[in-house]
Amino acid sequence: MAATEHYRPKHRLGLGGVPIGNAFQVVTDEEAQETLEAAWATGIRYYDVAPWYGLGLAERRYGHFLHNQQRDDYVLSTKVGRLLKASPDAPTQLRANFSAAPNEVIYDYSGPAVRRALEDSLQRLGIERIDIAFVHDLSPDNKDLACGWEHHFEIARQV
């Protein structure tokens, strides 16, 4: 692809994983499976997820469904920039989004962290490849970045 070209996904409609990760209410595994099955049955072939969605729960649920599909039949994206670290002392506010995963979230946009995030996502998904990796939450409105978003943006630019 030439530098002046823009990537254009072949799918015009996709399914985002925020609700599948219990962000707004508790969704059972069965409900998540039924949602993914219904999306597939209606022709949805682009699926977007992130480690942040349910602190890994959405990725596990997507992977449980998608590993039964032909890998070349769908496009899968996830995010980098937040690493999940298992911790029994994880802040309770992280569990407030209806997720009981005891994970601490660490912002890290460095090359090694991006590779680690993708490897961790592949592990949770149980799928051999991710088609698109987006940088997550690297913007002026993210007040959780202690050093400011510009600092983290410069680190991400080096990857």
Brief summary:
The protein has 159 residues and is of the alpha/beta class. It has helices at residues 29-41, 57-66, 111-125, 149-157; strands spanning 15-16, 46-48, 75-80, 82-86, 103-107, 132-135. It is built from 4 helices and 6 strands.
In words, what does this structure look like?
There is one protein chain. This protein is an alpha/beta fold and 159 residues long. It is 30% helix and 16% strand. The protein contains four helices and six strands, in the order E-H-E-H-E-E-E-H-E-H. It has helices at residues 29-41, 57-66, 111-125, 149-157; strands spanning 15-16, 46-48, 75-80, 82-86, 103-107, 132-135. The strands form two sheets. A four-stranded parallel sheet has the order 1-2-3-6, covered by helices on one side. Strands 4-5 form a two-stranded antiparallel ribbon. Helix 1 packs across helix 2. The longest helix is centred in the last third of the chain and has 15 residues, at 111-125. The protein is globular. It starts with 14 loop residues before the first strand and ends with a helix. The mean pLDDT is 87.
Give keywords.
four-stranded parallel sheet; 4 helices; globular; two-stranded antiparallel sheet; alpha/beta; 159 residues; 6 strands
Largest sheet: 4 strands, parallel
Beginning-to-end CA distance, first to last residue: 19 Å
Low-confidence stretches: none
Shape verdict: globular
Alpha plus pi helix count: 4
Mean pLDDT: 87
Widest beta sheet: strand line-up: 1-2-3-6
Structural class: alpha/beta
Strand content: 15-25%
Order of helices and strands: EHEHEEEHEH
- What Rg is obtained from the alpha carbons, in whole angstroms? 16 Å
Helix coverage percent = 25-40%
Number of strands: 6
